[in-house]
Amino acid sequence: MSDFEPFYDVSRSYEDNYEQGPFGAFAEALKDGNGADAAGTTSEGASASFLGQPVNLPFGIPAGPLLNSRFTTAAFRMGFDLATYKTVRSRAWGCNPFPNVLAVHPKAADGSLTPGSAELDEGVLADTNYETPISISNSFGVPSQSPDAWQPDMRAAIEAAGPGQVLVPSFQGSRVEGMSEEEYIADHATTARLVKETGAKLMVMNTSCPNEGHNRLLCHNPLLVGRITEAVKQEIGDIPLMVKLAYIPSDGDLELMVRSTVGHGTVQGFSTINTISAKLVDANGNQALPGAGRDHSGVCGNAIRGAGLDMVARLAAIREKLGLDFAINGVGGVVSPADYQAYRDAGADSVMSATGAMWDAELAHKIKASR
Ligand SMILES: Cc1cc2nc3c(=O)[nH]c(=O)nc-3n(C[C@H](O)[C@H](O)[C@H](O)COP(=O)(O)O)c2cc1C
């Protein structure tokens, strides 16, 4: 891996990446004279769309590694037709201490991790030996600039999209100490309004980060997500809203999530999955990431593709069963053109890759070339 440089450099701090990134091929793509991506015109046909917006290929990068408009613009130029702007908040929010990323090595021969398996709590080896097919952990704590900084930058990011390309803003609510449930709901609506003010044509609301206490995610409470999306809808009107979900093991809970959101007309799609939480240990069995509350961390990349495909297939089955119309954005472990196709075959209308794209800046071009 020595001469390869991911566009988000895991050996630097989040702040350095924000100020100096992107790196590698993405930095090259930003240099003068490099215009919109030529390969971006290799179209799937005029019918491809993402929440009502026309796209060349419904493939891109989910919330996370694209920190600001320089990253999203570089992603467009590298042929990723969907570029998600990393999750923003209603207020400035600090990042977890460095390091934020480690390589993860599950025991299975194919490198997979299965939701609910004992390995997740016994410990998975994590270190700095990055190998392909790549699996990593990410522990950032969803940092955000203040709206004064991210609003003008998000506006610039939206304007940099080429024909058939869509900037996807991502946001989430912030739970601070002493906040009532009503205030927590209102914070989501406020943040959605701030996103709308940038000229966003659609948005994704993240409900899959550990906001609700240790290992407790907002998406594990479908009725609260339903109330939040009602409040958000009041602010954003007709702008399509997608909800980002973590892996939800129970079909009953997943169906309740669909009924309490899509069923009420507040949500037009789901993006899934986020990371899978695992205990991370070093070669001596000690906690791999330094600091309190970081014994478990989210794993993404190759290890979680089976879980992502499973979630997408189950969501597609619920869509069919209930006869409801909503979009499914498949995420998790996409590292090759075959993985893109597997998600489409499982029922995803669009597909995104975070870890796979970080380690292969040519991934969108490869998928387009394979078609
Ligand atoms: C560096 C990094 C940062 C991330 N930050 C966010 C985030 O801010 N909001 C979010 O909804 N998901 C975030 N994610 C999760 C990704 O959107 C995605 O759901 C997950 O990584 C699984 O996809 P992958 O296997 O292609 O990486 C992040 C992922 C990575 C790798």
UniProtKB/TrEMBL annotation:
Annotated Pfam families: DHO_dh
Co-factor requirement: FMN
Keywords, comma-separated and alphabetical: Flavoprotein, FMN, Oxidoreductase, Pyrimidine biosynthesis
Gene3D superfamilies documented for this protein: Aldolase class I
Pathway: Pyrimidine metabolism; UMP biosynthesis via de novo pathway
Signal peptide: none
Domain named Dihydroorotate dehydrogenase catalytic: residues: 138-368
Molecular functions (GO terms): dihydroorotate dehydrogenase activity
Annotated Gene Ontology cellular component terms: cytoplasm
GO biological processes: 'de novo' pyrimidine nucleobase biosynthetic process; pyrimidine nucleotide biosynthetic process
Segments crossing the lipid bilayer: none
InterPro entries the UniProt entry points to: Aldolase_TIM (IPR013785), DHO_dehydrogenase (IPR050074), Dihydroorotate_DH_cat (IPR005720)
UniProt xrefs under PANTHER family: DIHYDROOROTATE DEHYDROGENASE (FUMARATE) (PTHR48109:SF1), DIHYDROOROTATE DEHYDROGENASE (QUINONE), MITOCHONDRIAL-RELATED (PTHR48109)
Entry protein name: Dihydroorotate dehydrogenase catalytic domain-containing protein
Native source organism of the sequence: Bifidobacterium longum (strain NCC 2705)
